[in-house]
Please model this.
Amino acid sequence: MLQNAPDFILLAQHGWADNNRTLDILAKRLATPKTCLVTPNLGYVQTWIRIEPLIQAVEKVAAETIALYPEIPLRIIGHSMGGLICLEVLHRHPEWHSLVHSLVLIGSPLGGASLARIIDPLNLGIGISSDLSRSRKAIAQEIAAVIPTLAIAGNLDGGGDGMINLGSTRVRNCHFRCLPGIAHPALRNHPRVEAAIREFWLAPTVPETTELTKTDKIIHYLESIPGMTDAHQKDFSKAKPLFTLNDGSTILFWRNPWGVAHVFLASPRGDYLWGGFVGWLHLSALDKALQEIQQEYSLKK
Model:
Protein backbone atom coordinates (compact mmCIF):
# COMPACT_ATOMS: atom_id res chain seq x y z
CA MET A 1 0.00 0.00 0.00
CA LEU A 2 1.16 3.54 -0.77
CA GLN A 3 2.78 5.47 2.01
CA ASN A 4 0.43 8.15 3.38
CA ALA A 5 -2.47 6.50 1.60
CA PRO A 6 -5.97 7.75 2.51
CA ASP A 7 -8.08 5.88 5.06
CA PHE A 8 -10.93 5.78 2.54
CA ILE A 9 -12.15 7.40 -0.65
CA LEU A 10 -15.38 9.36 -0.29
CA LEU A 11 -17.19 9.95 -3.57
CA ALA A 12 -20.07 12.40 -3.09
CA GLN A 13 -22.22 13.16 -6.12
CA HIS A 14 -24.69 16.02 -6.43
CA GLY A 15 -27.88 15.78 -8.44
CA TRP A 16 -30.21 17.62 -10.76
CA ALA A 17 -30.33 21.45 -10.99
CA ASP A 18 -27.37 21.66 -8.65
CA ASN A 19 -23.60 21.86 -8.37
CA ASN A 20 -21.24 20.27 -5.88
CA ARG A 21 -21.00 23.12 -3.37
CA THR A 22 -23.73 22.14 -0.88
CA LEU A 23 -23.10 18.38 -0.89
CA ASP A 24 -19.39 19.13 -0.55
CA ILE A 25 -20.16 20.65 2.87
CA LEU A 26 -21.68 17.36 4.04
CA ALA A 27 -18.84 15.35 2.52
CA LYS A 28 -16.19 17.43 4.31
CA ARG A 29 -17.96 16.92 7.63
CA LEU A 30 -18.01 13.16 7.02
CA ALA A 31 -14.38 13.00 5.93
CA THR A 32 -11.30 12.64 8.12
CA PRO A 33 -8.01 14.50 7.57
CA LYS A 34 -6.77 11.41 5.70
CA THR A 35 -9.80 10.93 3.44
CA CYS A 36 -9.50 11.23 -0.33
CA LEU A 37 -12.52 13.43 -1.06
CA VAL A 38 -14.01 13.30 -4.56
CA THR A 39 -16.97 15.60 -5.29
CA PRO A 40 -17.41 15.92 -9.07
CA ASN A 41 -19.05 19.14 -10.26
CA LEU A 42 -21.16 18.19 -13.27
CA GLY A 43 -22.34 21.75 -13.93
CA TYR A 44 -25.80 23.16 -13.25
CA VAL A 45 -26.80 23.50 -16.91
CA GLN A 46 -25.57 20.03 -17.87
CA THR A 47 -27.85 18.42 -15.26
CA TRP A 48 -30.88 19.62 -17.26
CA ILE A 49 -29.91 17.92 -20.52
CA ARG A 50 -29.22 14.15 -20.45
CA ILE A 51 -27.94 11.76 -17.79
CA GLU A 52 -25.61 9.64 -19.95
CA PRO A 53 -22.79 12.22 -20.27
CA LEU A 54 -23.03 12.77 -16.51
CA ILE A 55 -22.69 9.04 -15.85
CA GLN A 56 -19.64 8.91 -18.10
CA ALA A 57 -18.06 11.89 -16.34
CA VAL A 58 -18.45 10.32 -12.89
CA GLU A 59 -17.32 6.95 -14.24
CA LYS A 60 -14.11 8.57 -15.52
CA VAL A 61 -13.37 10.29 -12.20
CA ALA A 62 -14.08 7.09 -10.26
CA ALA A 63 -11.85 5.01 -12.53
CA GLU A 64 -8.97 7.48 -12.19
CA THR A 65 -9.31 7.57 -8.40
CA ILE A 66 -9.50 3.78 -8.06
CA ALA A 67 -6.45 3.43 -10.32
CA LEU A 68 -4.55 5.78 -8.01
CA TYR A 69 -5.64 3.96 -4.82
CA PRO A 70 -6.61 0.41 -5.90
CA GLU A 71 -6.66 -1.04 -2.37
CA ILE A 72 -8.46 1.78 -0.56
CA PRO A 73 -12.13 1.24 0.40
CA LEU A 74 -14.64 3.43 -1.39
CA ARG A 75 -17.60 5.08 0.31
CA ILE A 76 -20.22 6.56 -1.99
CA ILE A 77 -23.01 9.03 -1.29
CA GLY A 78 -25.33 10.52 -3.87
CA HIS A 79 -28.12 13.05 -3.54
CA SER A 80 -31.19 12.78 -5.77
CA MET A 81 -30.06 12.20 -9.38
CA GLY A 82 -26.52 11.86 -8.04
CA GLY A 83 -27.58 8.59 -6.43
CA LEU A 84 -28.94 7.36 -9.77
CA ILE A 85 -25.66 8.26 -11.46
CA CYS A 86 -23.71 6.30 -8.85
CA LEU A 87 -26.00 3.30 -9.31
CA GLU A 88 -25.45 3.35 -13.06
CA VAL A 89 -21.67 3.55 -12.61
CA LEU A 90 -21.67 0.61 -10.19
CA HIS A 91 -23.95 -1.38 -12.49
CA ARG A 92 -21.43 -0.96 -15.30
CA HIS A 93 -18.45 -1.92 -13.13
CA PRO A 94 -19.13 -5.06 -11.07
CA GLU A 95 -15.35 -5.42 -10.69
CA TRP A 96 -15.48 -2.42 -8.35
CA HIS A 97 -18.11 -3.87 -6.01
CA SER A 98 -15.62 -5.55 -3.68
CA LEU A 99 -13.93 -2.17 -3.13
CA VAL A 100 -17.11 -0.41 -2.02
CA HIS A 101 -17.53 -0.12 1.74
CA SER A 102 -21.03 1.35 1.45
CA LEU A 103 -23.47 3.23 -0.76
CA VAL A 104 -25.80 5.93 0.58
CA LEU A 105 -28.66 7.18 -1.59
CA ILE A 106 -30.12 10.47 -0.33
CA GLY A 107 -33.56 11.36 -1.67
CA SER A 108 -32.90 9.42 -4.86
CA PRO A 109 -35.92 8.60 -7.09
CA LEU A 110 -35.10 4.93 -7.59
CA GLY A 111 -38.60 4.24 -8.88
CA GLY A 112 -38.62 7.32 -11.08
CA ALA A 113 -39.44 10.94 -10.27
CA SER A 114 -43.16 11.69 -10.51
CA LEU A 115 -42.44 15.32 -11.44
CA ALA A 116 -40.32 14.16 -14.38
CA ARG A 117 -43.13 11.83 -15.50
CA ILE A 118 -45.59 14.75 -15.41
CA ILE A 119 -43.24 16.94 -17.49
CA ASP A 120 -42.75 14.21 -20.11
CA PRO A 121 -45.88 11.99 -19.96
CA LEU A 122 -45.47 10.74 -23.52
CA ASN A 123 -41.79 9.87 -23.07
CA LEU A 124 -40.74 12.28 -25.80
CA GLY A 125 -37.27 12.73 -24.35
CA ILE A 126 -37.81 16.24 -23.01
CA GLY A 127 -34.47 17.17 -21.45
CA ILE A 128 -33.51 15.19 -18.38
CA SER A 129 -37.15 14.28 -17.63
CA SER A 130 -37.18 11.01 -19.55
CA ASP A 131 -34.01 9.91 -17.73
CA LEU A 132 -35.35 10.78 -14.28
CA SER A 133 -38.77 9.22 -14.85
CA ARG A 134 -37.27 5.78 -15.55
CA SER A 135 -37.33 3.25 -12.72
CA ARG A 136 -33.96 1.96 -11.56
CA LYS A 137 -35.32 -0.18 -8.73
CA ALA A 138 -34.11 -3.39 -10.36
CA ILE A 139 -30.56 -2.01 -10.58
CA ALA A 140 -30.72 -0.67 -7.02
CA GLN A 141 -31.98 -4.00 -5.67
CA GLU A 142 -29.20 -5.85 -7.48
CA ILE A 143 -26.53 -3.49 -6.15
CA ALA A 144 -27.94 -3.54 -2.61
CA ALA A 145 -27.73 -7.34 -2.59
CA VAL A 146 -23.93 -7.15 -2.73
CA ILE A 147 -23.02 -3.67 -1.45
CA PRO A 148 -24.27 -2.38 1.93
CA THR A 149 -26.75 0.30 0.89
CA LEU A 150 -28.69 2.89 2.86
CA ALA A 151 -31.54 4.93 1.38
CA ILE A 152 -32.40 8.15 3.21
CA ALA A 153 -35.65 9.98 2.52
CA GLY A 154 -37.18 13.19 3.79
CA ASN A 155 -40.85 13.31 4.73
CA LEU A 156 -42.75 16.59 4.81
CA ASP A 157 -46.34 15.45 4.35
CA GLY A 158 -46.54 11.72 4.96
CA GLY A 159 -45.65 10.86 1.39
CA GLY A 160 -42.51 12.64 0.25
CA ASP A 161 -39.94 15.41 0.65
CA GLY A 162 -41.70 17.91 -1.59
CA MET A 163 -40.08 16.59 -4.77
CA ILE A 164 -39.56 12.83 -4.45
CA ASN A 165 -42.28 10.44 -3.26
CA LEU A 166 -41.33 8.12 -0.41
CA GLY A 167 -42.17 4.96 -2.33
CA SER A 168 -39.65 5.86 -5.00
CA THR A 169 -36.74 6.01 -2.54
CA ARG A 170 -36.74 2.47 -1.16
CA VAL A 171 -36.12 -1.02 -2.54
CA ARG A 172 -35.66 -4.56 -1.33
CA ASN A 173 -32.20 -5.39 0.18
CA CYS A 174 -31.71 -1.73 1.07
CA HIS A 175 -31.60 -0.25 4.57
CA PHE A 176 -34.04 2.66 4.86
CA ARG A 177 -34.21 5.79 7.03
CA CYS A 178 -37.13 8.21 6.81
CA LEU A 179 -36.39 11.63 8.32
CA PRO A 180 -39.53 13.67 9.09
CA GLY A 181 -39.57 17.39 8.43
CA ILE A 182 -36.69 17.57 5.93
CA ALA A 183 -37.29 18.90 2.41
CA HIS A 184 -35.48 17.56 -0.66
CA PRO A 185 -32.87 20.36 -0.98
CA ALA A 186 -32.13 20.32 2.76
CA LEU A 187 -31.19 16.63 2.60
CA ARG A 188 -27.90 17.63 0.96
CA ASN A 189 -26.25 18.75 4.19
CA HIS A 190 -28.72 18.30 7.05
CA PRO A 191 -27.21 17.27 10.43
CA ARG A 192 -29.70 14.39 10.75
CA VAL A 193 -28.60 13.05 7.37
CA GLU A 194 -24.99 13.23 8.53
CA ALA A 195 -25.91 11.38 11.73
CA ALA A 196 -27.75 8.66 9.80
CA ILE A 197 -24.75 8.14 7.52
CA ARG A 198 -22.30 7.98 10.42
CA GLU A 199 -24.49 5.43 12.20
CA PHE A 200 -24.72 3.29 9.06
CA TRP A 201 -20.97 3.48 8.50
CA LEU A 202 -20.33 1.95 11.93
CA ALA A 203 -21.66 -1.44 10.78
CA PRO A 204 -22.74 -1.49 7.12
CA THR A 205 -24.35 -4.79 6.17
CA VAL A 206 -26.23 -6.46 3.36
CA PRO A 207 -29.58 -7.64 4.80
CA GLU A 208 -30.28 -11.35 4.81
CA THR A 209 -32.37 -12.47 1.87
CA THR A 210 -35.90 -13.43 2.85
CA GLU A 211 -38.57 -15.20 0.85
CA LEU A 212 -40.95 -12.91 -0.99
CA THR A 213 -44.41 -12.68 0.53
CA LYS A 214 -47.50 -12.54 -1.64
CA THR A 215 -47.66 -8.81 -1.00
CA ASP A 216 -44.03 -8.45 -2.12
CA LYS A 217 -44.77 -10.38 -5.31
CA ILE A 218 -47.80 -8.26 -6.16
CA ILE A 219 -45.89 -5.03 -5.56
CA HIS A 220 -43.01 -6.31 -7.69
CA TYR A 221 -45.49 -7.24 -10.42
CA LEU A 222 -47.06 -3.78 -10.36
CA GLU A 223 -43.68 -2.04 -10.31
CA SER A 224 -42.61 -4.00 -13.39
CA ILE A 225 -45.41 -2.50 -15.51
CA PRO A 226 -43.87 -0.26 -18.20
CA GLY A 227 -44.11 3.40 -17.23
CA MET A 228 -45.06 2.69 -13.60
CA THR A 229 -44.04 5.51 -11.26
CA ASP A 230 -44.50 5.63 -7.48
CA ALA A 231 -47.51 7.70 -6.45
CA HIS A 232 -47.91 10.07 -3.52
CA GLN A 233 -49.64 8.50 -0.55
CA LYS A 234 -52.03 11.47 -0.24
CA ASP A 235 -53.96 10.19 -3.26
CA PHE A 236 -54.63 6.83 -1.60
CA SER A 237 -57.77 8.16 0.10
CA LYS A 238 -59.27 9.09 -3.28
CA ALA A 239 -59.04 5.55 -4.70
CA LYS A 240 -61.95 3.09 -4.83
CA PRO A 241 -61.71 -0.70 -4.38
CA LEU A 242 -61.28 -2.58 -7.63
CA PHE A 243 -60.99 -6.15 -6.35
CA THR A 244 -59.98 -8.02 -3.22
CA LEU A 245 -57.39 -10.71 -2.60
CA ASN A 246 -58.33 -13.84 -0.73
CA ASP A 247 -56.29 -12.65 2.26
CA GLY A 248 -58.35 -9.48 2.50
CA SER A 249 -55.87 -7.14 0.83
CA THR A 250 -57.38 -4.80 -1.75
CA ILE A 251 -56.40 -3.37 -5.11
CA LEU A 252 -57.78 0.17 -5.49
CA PHE A 253 -58.01 2.45 -8.51
CA TRP A 254 -58.24 6.20 -9.07
CA ARG A 255 -58.01 8.42 -12.13
CA ASN A 256 -56.92 12.01 -11.54
CA PRO A 257 -58.51 15.01 -13.33
CA TRP A 258 -56.00 14.65 -16.18
CA GLY A 259 -56.95 11.03 -16.73
CA VAL A 260 -53.78 9.54 -15.23
CA ALA A 261 -54.49 6.06 -13.83
CA HIS A 262 -53.40 5.34 -10.26
CA VAL A 263 -53.39 1.91 -8.62
CA PHE A 264 -52.93 1.21 -4.91
CA LEU A 265 -52.55 -1.82 -2.67
CA ALA A 266 -54.14 -1.79 0.80
CA SER A 267 -53.70 -4.21 3.69
CA PRO A 268 -56.64 -6.25 5.03
CA ARG A 269 -57.10 -3.45 7.59
CA GLY A 270 -57.24 -0.87 4.82
CA ASP A 271 -53.80 0.60 5.45
CA TYR A 272 -51.69 1.92 2.59
CA LEU A 273 -49.07 -0.54 1.33
CA TRP A 274 -48.08 0.76 -2.11
CA GLY A 275 -49.19 3.11 -4.86
CA GLY A 276 -48.19 3.96 -8.40
CA PHE A 277 -49.41 5.54 -11.61
CA VAL A 278 -48.93 5.15 -15.35
CA GLY A 279 -49.36 7.60 -18.20
CA TRP A 280 -51.71 7.27 -21.12
CA LEU A 281 -49.17 5.31 -23.17
CA HIS A 282 -49.17 2.44 -20.69
CA LEU A 283 -52.85 2.08 -19.80
CA SER A 284 -53.20 -1.16 -21.75
CA ALA A 285 -50.18 -2.63 -19.93
CA LEU A 286 -51.76 -1.70 -16.60
CA ASP A 287 -55.09 -3.27 -17.54
CA LYS A 288 -53.36 -6.46 -18.66
CA ALA A 289 -51.30 -6.66 -15.46
CA LEU A 290 -54.33 -6.16 -13.23
CA GLN A 291 -56.17 -8.95 -15.04
CA GLU A 292 -53.19 -11.27 -14.63
CA ILE A 293 -52.84 -10.41 -10.94
CA GLN A 294 -56.50 -11.13 -10.41
CA GLN A 295 -56.15 -14.55 -12.04
CA GLU A 296 -52.79 -15.43 -10.44
CA TYR A 297 -53.71 -14.57 -6.88
CA SER A 298 -57.31 -15.84 -6.84
CA LEU A 299 -58.85 -12.45 -6.43
CA LYS A 300 -62.56 -11.92 -6.29
CA LYS A 301 -64.53 -8.94 -7.52
User: Anything to note?
Assistant: The CA atoms of residues 155 and 180 lie 5 Å apart. The chain has a mean pLDDT of 93.
